[in-house]
Amino acid sequence: MKNTLKDKLKEFIIYDVIKKGILRYLSDRQFIMIDYFAVYGKMPDLQHPKTFSEKLQWVKINGCLEKYTKYVDKYEVRDFISKTIGKEYLVPLIGAWDNFEDIPFNKLPRQFILKATHGSGYGFICKDKSSLNRNELEKIVAKWMRESFYKKTREVQYKDCKPRIICEKYLEDDSGGLIDYKILCFDGKPYMIEVLSDRFTGLKYDPMDLNWNELPISAKGFRKSDRKIKKPENLNKMLYVSEMLSQSMPFVRVDLYSVNNKIYFGELTFIPAGGFDIYEPPEVNYQLGELINLSRYTTNRLNLSSKKINSSH
């Protein structure tokens, strides 16, 4: 979706004026406290956090998230996916480069996706290379490469990610776009599925339980679909994939796609939306918060399985 002028102005004020200016001198803790206040109008209780949002702010500060750096790097994570569930779950990689001028556009297919590897929200979908404005794309990519996602959010897992550009195969499912299945996993167990669809016409948010029943939950800034979301035929396998990928992790959101009944890995997200999703009803924030065991962040060491998925699932 294209950002409106109002969105761009808001981003400029929040990021370029405030976060890159005034707040850059603050410690991570001070920055996160003020960021939380700007969203919720109150300071988080980090001594006795109870809500999902509060606990994720605690995790940003105390959760030793730097151990997850290679899992949020969109290039480095491919090795983990290949070893854990198999390379067949990876979106085919067309190329990886350190600089925009190194991209051989004449060799790229008609449709492709460009991403920056060191943060979230850095993606460009090209559906027809013949109509591509390369100068405009260069400006977009230059902005990605200048930014430090860590400085925007103070999520330390992104601090040491090397900025790179990758190009992946363009995917499209039966919807005419690409439905995103975001599976929230706690201690290696899937809990709920956040379905995001209609990315080109107005992003829709539909939360489902593990049996594909719609949950009475909404998220601020998103609309629900006006049609019933079709249950993917490979739902059980998607849940199993998310379980495999979330082993030994206190909390992670596993993002997957399904194209022609084939599952593709999207990304692993340890602090969704910076921990600032606003759910309705408010009780959801407490219910999700109860599922995070904070002691697991300081006592648990990563012991990720390299056992690949059995084809029978």
Describe this structure as you would to a colleague.
30% of the residues lie in helices and 19% in strands. It has 2 domains: 70-90 and 173-313, D-amino Acid Aminotransferase, Chain A, domain 1, CATH 3.30.470; 92-170, no CATH class. α3 crosses α9 (283-290). It is globular, with a radius of gyration of 19 Å. It has 313 residues and is of the alpha+beta class. The protein has 10 helices and 11 strands. A hairpin with a 6-residue loop joins β2 and β3 (123-126). The model has no long low-confidence stretch (mean pLDDT 90). A 5-stranded antiparallel sheet has the order 7-6-5-9-10. Strands 1-4-2-3 form a 4-stranded antiparallel sheet, covered by helices on one side.
Radius of gyration: 19 Å
- Mean pLDDT value: 90
Low-confidence stretches: none
The structural class is alpha+beta
Fold blueprint:
Elements: H1 5-19, H2 28-40, H3 52-62, H4 69-72, H5 77-84, E1 93-97, E2 112-116, E3 123-126, H6 134-146, H7 149-153, E4 165-169, E5 180-186, E6 189-197, E7 204-208, E8 218-219, H8 235-245, E9 251-259, E10 262-269, E11 279-280, H9 283-290, H10 295-299
Helix pairs in contact: 3-9
